[in-house]
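HUMAN: Would you supply a protein with fold tokens?

ASSISTANT:
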Amino acid sequence: MPFHTLLGFADLWCGGIALVSFTGAVVWGQVSVGRQVLTPRHRLMAQAAHRATGVLGIGSLALHVIAKIEYGRAAPAAVVPFADPHQRFLAGLGALALWLMVAAAVTGAARSAFVARRHPGRWRLLHGVAYLGWCSSLVHGLKAGQPESSPWVTAGYGACLLAVVVVPVWRAVRRAGAGTDDRFGVDWTLCDGHGLCAGMVPELIRIGPDGYPFVSTSPIPPYLAARAQAAARRCPTLALRVEGIRSGR
């Protein structure tokens, strides 16, 4: 394939591919925390899809930026937010989305470092810039990218918006009208099988034949609440949590 043909494809389509990929990353990220619905294995699969679509989005966005610079249309505005004298705001949103998504990818890769320092809340805040990046890329693509007159483009962007909105609404609807019970939740991507939790709350957690804890999905009885909270706090990898899980009544 000639270089200019590839460059033309990147200029025309890679921005849209990046948005679709980032939409998938956001959706799979939301799905992967659905502890009420997914099994640990399915959550791991959802997290893998979340990472894969994020990497695809970063790669597509990089090709899109390279094409813009090669054609001399946007340099240095392609990488410097709000530096384009002609479309300062709309083009600037594209450059802003680039850096916000890169920041989300870096914090995602560095998750273990935040966990080791016991700062999961700080990690979630920094990784959450992906939502702002996604919004920026949506507005940039719709207003500064393909012609607004194209019904397929408009429908595609609408589908991306719908996908990102539907998942959290679906999760909220599932919780509506349900009671709340404190139960254990486990992030299996962090659990290393130390077994400390099983020693502290043997009534609800035991070590399975694979060396990893088998955690009961039953509500935590009030008389075990203090020990359960202590076990979650002392988990070496912060994989164990006590959460208010909704259960239908």
Notes: The radius of gyration is 22 Å. The mean pLDDT is 81. The beta strands are 179-186, 205-207, 213-215, 240-247. Residues 11 and 71 are 9 Å apart (CA to CA).
